[in-house]
Amino acid sequence: MSKFILGEAIKGAHKIVKKAEERLNQAIAEKGENCPVSFPDTAYFIPIIYSILGHKVEKLGDFKPVLEKSKSLLPQEPTEKLWLPYLGPGLDAGMATLFAEEIIEATKYLIGPIPVDGIWLGAPNDVILRERGVEFTDGRAPGFAVVVGAAPNNEIAVKIAQELQSASLYTFFCGHTNGVSVAEQLAEEGIDLGWETRLVPFGKDIYSAIYAIGFAVRAAMAFGGIPAGDFRRILMYVKNRIFAFLLALGHIDEEKYATAAGAISFGAPTLTDTDIPEILPTGICLYEHVVSNVPYEEMVDKALEVRGLKIEVTKIELPVAYGPAFEGERVRKENLYLEAGGAKSTSFELLTMAPSEEVEDDKIEVIGPEIESFPEGSKIPLAIVAKVAGAKMKREFEPVLERQIHRFINEAQGVMHIGQRDINWIRISKEAQKKGLKLRHLGDIIRGKLLADYGRIVDKVQVTIYTEEGKVKELLEGARKIFHERDERLQALSDESVDIYYSCTLCQSFAPTHVCVITPERIGLCGAYTWLDGGAAYEIDPTGGNQPIEKGALIDAEKGIWEGVNEFIKKKSGGKIENVSLYSMIHDPMTCCGCFECILAILPMTNGIMVVQRGYQGMTPTGMTFSTLAGMVGGGQQTPGFMGVGKTYLASKKFISYDGGLLRLVWMPKELKEELRPMLQKRAEELGVPDLVDKIADETVTTTEEEVLAFMEKVGHPSLTMAALL
Ligand code: SF4
Ligand code: ZN
After folding, report:
1. Residue nearest to atom 3 of ligand 1 (CA)
2. Across the 726 residues of the chain, what is the mean pLDDT of every consecutive 10-residue run?
């Protein structure tokens, strides 16, 4: 244990608390004690303060007791007990630092400088929390790194960032060394920054580290259902579930020591490239708190080892990096080597099964010219045809596996994939081409990932890639026939035509009583799991999150209640939920976790309902935004009158059919309306109201309930004359 570090951290904590006091006094002088203060679009107040102290900061004056608390926590003399990894009876200097840093950052939103500036993103809102939080539950993101300071040069910065991306971690940037930060070094090198690429610049001050820790404590409250103020459980949750560590590059000053001390309370160790005394395991904690002098090439590996993170990196021989962090990366026009599809050339992808003897595993062929034969900027014809075989493979899994091609290809650095089937669009960047990426590598990726992720149903994969116009066109006809047959088969499936539904309990790690019941006519509320996906997932992992549910005896056909479904839900919710109606949002609706694509809500005055999708920032006629509504319905509860759903469920015959179905829909954001228009139109025609879609109000008409009603009367919305909803 080093007295040196402790001394530095305590000095830093004193400095930061003093600064927070100055900032708070200045803000109060300018704005008054009653001035509202918050981070944008969050239901978690000032999150670290809220989660640890249970104290809601709503006005500037509410910070005063927090500041007093911080001061009282500041130790005068370095003592050993401060380094306990958990908050013991005595809170430590690090925690005082984090509270003070939240005060500093929050006041920035009132008296400047605004934390959102250039590459810096400032506080993440609740939409981001929910979207990205899911990835921490289902394992797509094993944890996050907080990178502080600057690398000695841009090359090292890029290398470290890409290693973190390859390990699928989120990387949060804060602080600088002599005015330079790693995020700026990456931006200079043209690296895409943002949530999409998992490289997230929070702020140039070290204080913005609170956005990273604030993100983790909000996950604990939102998904772990831990009440604010239960600080022990909050700290344990973050330590055990959200693997985090700090990489401090360059000189570490007192303020950085103090911040690192705060992070240690949350189980996040610090690794540095500089020569400072180490803090080794104490016996309470299994791993080191501070590891110094780590060479750059070993930094990421060492961090994973110290934090005990096992990352499964799929080994596919590729000249470019590969992993989910590259999924969101875009290939822009200036950067484009070649592209296929996207209405610019003939292109499609198809996956079918075949008898084992007809599939030659690992045979990846390119028929037609390879990448180097095409000049830069080409729009090429492309057919990607995969054949798979496996003892457990079934024809109905073909579309499930085929849809994975999107993610598989997208995860390669410098490759972008959009869409599916014959509406796909693939772009390859100049850098990727320069590094040696060939079209055949797309085949290698598809094979490697299918075997890695779906090895229980797929034994052999053969991929043929065609790049001659004539051949691609010829094959496209056959492919379209197959797509068409699949659609027909899917349409023949109904809730009545099957005996088995599938559950999804993947979200239980965040919402312990939540069970998605996935039927042929109702997709999981996150939009990611159809009934076919559920079946495939069950074959792949019979003990996993997707289990078959025997419908059992029918209790109520109108409401959609079955004995088997109720029994299953009761068991899986630990007895908390006893009855679920699959076709109603009012009578025992399905539970919600936090990842719904859309939220339905009743608008009582209109005798109808509205829907709003994630990402819509504006107001809705309920008087609440999406994020406020999301705060109300999540956490594994049944909330009659409100329900989270997947987008495509809106066009299903079983869409809240007990409550009146699609004819009840009276308001939705324009963007969602246009996105779903073709399916909604089809359904509206089936219902005998072909102009229904245009009778649904949107934000260009109004965002108040009264005016929705006026609009409905003007256009003659069918819901007006339907039976009373409530
Ligand atoms: Fe979560 Fe339901 Fe999606 Fe499964 S289907 S991941 S439980 S939201
Ligand atoms: Zn969920």
Report:
1. 526
2. 68 94 97 95 92 96 96 72 39 88 97 94 89 72 93 95 91 96 96 93 97 93 85 89 91 92 88 81 59 90 83 78 88 95 94 96 96 97 97 88 93 93 95 96 96 88 97 96 88 93 84 92 90 88 89 97 97 94 97 90 97 92 91 88 95 97 98 96 97 98 97 97 93
**What percent helix, strand, coil does the chain show, rounded to 5?**
45, 15, 40
Taking the centre of ligand 2 as the mean of its atom positions, its distance from the CA of residue 135, in whole angstroms, is 10
Report the pocket of ligand 1 as residue ranges, CB < 6 Å: 504-507, 516, 524-526, 528-529, 593, 595
Q: Going by C-beta distance under 8 Å and a sequence separation of 6 or more, which residues neighbour residue 705?
A: 603, 605, 606, 621, 622, 623
Cα gap 463→445, rounded to integer Å: 10
Out of 519, 593, 597, 598, mutate this one to test ligand 1's pocket (max ligand atoms within 8 Å of CB): namely 593
Q: Is the pTM of this model over 0.85?
A: no
Residues within 5 Å of ion ligand 2, judged at the Cβ atom:
507, 593, 595
Question: Residue 259 is inside which H or E element, if any?
Answer: helix 254-265
Q: What distance in angstroms lies between residue 527's CA and the mean position of ligand 2's atoms?
A: 10
Residue 318 belongs to some domain of the structure: no
Residue 386 contacts residue 405 (beta carbons within 8 Å): yes
The residue behind tokens 């976790």 is 593
Distance 507 CA to ligand 2 centre (A): 4
Instruction: Please indicate, yes or no, whether residues 548 and 622 belong to a single structural domain of this protein.
Output: yes
d(CA 199, CA 182): 10
Report whether 510 contacts 593 (CB < 8 A). Answer: yes
The domain boundary residue, chosen from 446, 466, 486: 486
Whole-number Å distance, alpha carbon 509 to ligand 1 midpoint, is 11
| Helix, strand counts (H, E) of the chain | 21, 23
* Torsion, Cα of 150, 156, 157, 161 (10° steps): -140
Q: Which domain holds residue 529?
A: 495-721
**Angstrom distance (rounded) from CA 33 to CA 27:** 8
Number of domain units in the chain: 3
Which residue(s) pair with 279 in the sheet? 290
If one residue of 501, 514, 526 were mutated to test the ligand 1 pocket, choosing by the most ligand atoms within 8 A of its CB, it would be 526
What residue owns the CA closest to ligand 1's atom 8? Answer: 526
Q: At 611, is the secondary structure helix, strand, or coil?
A: strand
* Residue 312 resides in a domain: no
Locus of tokens 């599916």: 420
Q: Which of 458, 486, 514 is the last residue of a domain?
A: 486
Instruction: Quickly list H helices, 74-208.
Output: 93-111, 126-137, 154-166, 182-188
CA of 716 to the centre of ligand 1 (A): 37
Ligand 1 centre to CA of 645 (Å) is 10
Verify that 174 and 276 share a domain, yes or no.
yes
